[in-house]
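no rush on this but wanted to send it before i forget. theres a chain ive been looking at and ive put its sequence and its fold in token form underneath. please have a look and point out which stretches look like helix strand or loop to you. thanks a lot i owe you, the record is right below:
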Amino acid sequence: MHRPLVITEDHVLLDDLVRIAAAAGAQLDVAHIPAHARPFWNLAPLIVIGADQADAVAATSPPPRDQVLLVTREPEDPDTWRKCVAVGAQSVVTLPGDERHLVDRFADAMEPDPRSGSVICVIGGRGGAGASVLAACLALRASADHLRTLLVDADPLGGGIDALLGHEEAEGSRWGDLVAREGRINSSALQAALPAFGDLAVLSFHRGEVAAIPAQAMRSVLEAGRRGFDLVIVDLPRHLDPASIEALTRARTTLAVATADVRGILSAAQVLSEVRKHTADIRAILRPGVLDDDTAMTSLGIPSAGNLPDQPRLTATLNRGELPRLGPRTVLGALCTSLLTDLLPQP
């Protein structure tokens, strides 16, 4: 894989750029004069030109390309934007103020096959509504369809979605290994660290005492997930914490699983009153109960995304450590296929 290219003869600036690139997990190719940069110009995923070499680079009339930055320490220099145009840069980066932005640009440059995955959140209207089961089955169905899928357990007290899948002993990182990390997470590193089963990666909790997920950790994971996966499914707790709110603000759609009985609808309405503060597209998955569908949906006040009939054998199947059948002829498989078709952008 080709590396970002830096063109500068300013050794102090170069030291800073090497340090910033290291924070993004990137190594650099360095050219002190434009002639040394010529072989790398069309190959480097990102080119950073020091202001000290801008005129020299412009004099060589390099072919136009994307992902070229001009970096300077002199934000008030009236000549900066002339240099930016002369070298064909798309923007100016001023240090030290734009250091965080430059870390992200270096990290982006090192992402292989970048994606733009969709985030779908799933939340239960009350305990036992089946939200975790739906989240897991959606992830299994998507990965079976060769969508690179990340299933995120956001409920520290939920018992572990990896256990629901029968993979609680699988090797790989859990939330406890990630919460101390600050800043950006490389999507390739995230994929390599997590337990994975085919096209499905799972982020859950360690057994025993667990701590709340910091909002920054959730933000970093979801950003890495969107870059490295086609689909990110987040299983939310009913009591929203800062990490849950981070997920909701990034969700393409949120599915609320509600049971069609009086307490189920009242509880779901309470949950939805909080969820609505943080995300716009919320749809209901209705479980059967004593209320008819029209009454239940009118009370919830959100569109229906589908119905999830009771499946008496499902609990026994999961408790045996087996996965449910999700073929197109099964009720659960058909629902998951329909949801993925409706909720994800089509090619």
